[in-house]
Amino acid sequence: MRIGVPREIKVHEYRVGLTPDSVREAAAHGHEVLVETGAGLGIGCEDADYRKAGARIASDAKEVFALGELIVKVKEPQPQECAMLRDGQVLFTYLHLAPDPGQAQRLQDSGVTAFAYETVTDPGGGLPLLTPMSEVAGRMSIQVGATYLQKPWGMRGILLPGVPGAPSARVVVLGAGIAGAQAARTAAGLGAQVTVFDRSLPKLRRLDDLYGGRLRTVYSTTDAIEEAIGRADLVIGAVLIPGATTPKLVRRGQMALLQPGTVLVDIAIDQGGCFETSRPTTHQDPVFEVAGVIHYAVANMPGAVPRTSAFALNHATLPFVLALADKGWQRACRDDPHLLAGLNIHRGKITCRAVAQSLGKECVPANLEG
To answer: Each residue of 170-197: pLDDT tens digit?
Structure first.
């Protein structure tokens, strides 16, 4: 199969769908890999590295999309990329369709068979292709939050870990999944006062077992959240419902509870965000203010650390890329129900139930026998 790897064009997105070592593995399986020139520069990999791994270098994205049978990306296809997709082609990337009806419609119109990294599952019920980026985003959220708590950004001038005689920052983490747990771990490690909310008692117990008195775990209720955010310096939104729109845990009317200068970091913005006042931002223009509260809602946070992110992501995605290329998407899905869970769109129809429900559309299972 011919695998196409275009250069990412989302604002300040430097990751790449396949790293040179992944290309070498695909080539060893007998596949032709076509990589757009410059696709790996953001992670420090030049065209020569890809040629050495066995890839052919394409002059532009048009060539990649025209010749590629399987397109492997990182971020959702931008409108100009959707226009180059076609019937019978397979797309494998992050999609986050639930809050993005425009993209969903463009993919439906293209006829492409589209798999979303974020809905591929594993035998334990996890999301193996979302996990590495959730780990990155969770840890980054504290780093970012600590930056924006500083006075030069117009905020409160608080050092996250404090110093002897001056208290550390109060950090609230909404969600105890992968991203939330990593945020809590990082904040606690820096010496902040951390409170984590979730409705999963097993997740809260796990954090309590791991970190004990270094953080507080609280069952998530409206009253408990309101009390905590009213005293918080930094609030991390890290709730995820696979494939579906993120529930709004802090509504616009509750913003008055927050102290001026509080920082909100919305890791869940890809799926619509945890805060009603959130809107997607970019690394070029990452923050905005609502009622004296700064919001950081960059939709591709791991793109700021592309080398770490790209290699971590490739280690998770490569087995699925090889399965799709070796077997074709239908047989690969018949053999692996967890890959099938990643199928979001096929020939104009939405095939993922959570996405269909979020968009108010019909879910139509794909024919795996044709």
So the answer is: 999 999 999 999 999 999 999 999 999 9
CATH no. of 2-120+306-359: 3.40.50.720
The CATH architecture to which 131-304 belongs is: 3-Layer(aba) Sandwich (3.40)
Residue 96 annotated as catalytic: yes
**C-alpha span between 273 and 277 (Å, rounded):** 9
Helix (H, G, I), strand (E, B) or coil at 256: helix
Catalytic-role residue among 100, 270, 295, 338: 270
Catalytic residue list contains 31 = no
Show the tokens assigned to 89: 């082609």
Q: Where are the domains of the chain?
A: 2-120+306-359, 131-304
SS3 195: strand
Choice among 96, 295, 338, 346 that is catalytic: 96
Q: Is the pLDDT of residue 153 over 80?
A: no
Q: In angstroms, how far apart are the furthest CA atoms of the chain?
A: 70
